[in-house]
Amino acid sequence: MERSTEQKVDIKIDQRPARTEDIPSIVAMIDIIDDDDAEACDHDFRKHGVDDHWVAFCGSKLVGITGYRLVNNTVGSGWLSWTYVHPEFQRQGIGQSLLTTAINTAKEQSCHQLFVKVSNYIESNGVSTYANAIRLYEKNGFEFILKNPELYDAKEDQLIYRLILSNEDRPEINDEKPNVKFTGIFELVESDGAYTFDWDVKKNPLWGSRSFSKDDLIIGLQAVKEQGGRVVFLTFPSNWPLIHKPLQEAGFKFIGELENYYEPGVDEMHFCHDLGGI
Amino acid sequence: MFPISDDNPTFNRPYATYFLFGLNIAAWLLLQGAGFGTQLDSSVCSYGLIPSELFGGAQIGVCDTRNNLGTLSVISSMFMHGSWMHIAGNMLFLWVFGDNVEDVMGPIKFIVFYLLGGITAAAFQVFSDPSSSIPMVGASGAIGAVMGGYLLLYPKARIKMFIFIFIFFTTFRVPAFVMLGYWIAVQMISAVSVQSATGGVAFWAHIGGFAFGAITIHLFKDKQMIVSHPEYGWNKNTNPADIWKDPQNRK
Hints:
The complex is a heterodimer. Chain A has six helices and 13 strands. Chain A is of the alpha+beta class. Chain A has two domains: 152 residues, Gcn5-related N-acetyltransferase (GNAT) (Aminopeptidase, 3-Layer(aba) Sandwich); 95 residues, Gcn5-related N-acetyltransferase (GNAT) (Aminopeptidase). In chain A, the strands form two sheets. In chain A, strands 1, 2, 3, 4, 5, 6, 7 and 8 form an eight-stranded mixed sheet that branches. In chain A, strands 9-10-11-13-12 form a five-stranded mixed sheet, covered by helices on one side. In chain A, a hairpin with a 6-residue loop joins strand 9 and strand 10. In chain A, helix 1 runs antiparallel to helix 2. By secondary structure, chain B is mainly alpha-helical. Chain B has ten helices and three strands; from the N terminus they run βαααααααββααα. A three-stranded antiparallel sheet of chain B has the order 1-2-3. Chain B is elongated.
């Protein structure tokens, strides 16, 4: 006989697509679990809306949220969005039900793979805050693929999991040499001291330098240090050959890649710099 | 037998190649009457390079009048052609090879490279027979420079050749060093064996342009633009991302 470890109680849960008027309730629920996330979620929903998100209610009480966003400029990559279940309603199948809806809808929208970011934060009592969430993701086929070390805090990494929804062939892709110029620095959402650089792809010059140099990177790293930053994360497509030499010369380390992120054959490469020697 | 394309990708849109291509076509249509009527002969005499006139010689050969462009005719002659076959052949070669050479230096430097190649080609032809009163026209010298540059940049790139014998035709691919090596060998043999006094192909111009391109291409190429180019050089380019395989460069 199959035994379930989930404690199911006889309550009626309703699920529907999220609406703009749900945002305050969503934020209030997330705030119970993670106030940083609540703030970031509020900002995100007000800026990008709640399309492709679903909420669960127990009566009039909002008890769960999930959804996903397809990534612009990619072919079929999406990120699972804010996925939370009210602490009093966890382990009752609400997260599973919401997640199933999100995954099925993503498939229908030709999403090839879904990624999700999750923290490995350990509470003072030794319990992982997101252990239940990670279990849920793994149960649904998400696999751990990359760790951005100390992204959230000095002792809190960002873990990235991936669910492949359809297998794509990996074709040979031609390299590209866009003219990448850094335009500023900013602290990553939800992090404490982790920065990244803003950059633009400009029109290729008629002559002269095509892309950023080691010196451009050092200027950015120094600016982060002056702002009190701890670490810098950068990501680039794998078919941009001009990025590697200056990144390596400036002391960046390679973390890993999200395969086929931009399109089949083009990964997203992750790099970090702990500001040592800057 | 002539090239019709190559298996050699480009990273950038070849604006200068388009521009030079357009300029040659425009000159052919607007200044040379598309090869029809008397406009062809008069344009060749007006804009062509006449070696004897360049050095102040008074003799007038096939042209009734002197051209008044002086040394500027070195440039103007590069955009003139003698027949439909002449311009079609030159533009085909520019189309096949120009984009890849421009791709390693950018459009501005490519135009400079092209013009200097044409000037060097003209110099070779003029010095091979300074007293010649036959007007010299054609982009062949400048395109020879492009071909010389191409040979040094992409010796192993596959060139698709078109060949026809009577009513039969087919295509096949050869490495650039074979096609361009054959081409320059033919030019050199022809240059020493064919008398140009009666007009015809300016073999010395081809050789001069080709030599200029092969010798100077490494001064014009941009280091960043050749990074990871799949056809650059004799050996397969290493992948720049391989540096991350070193454990010291990994987190």
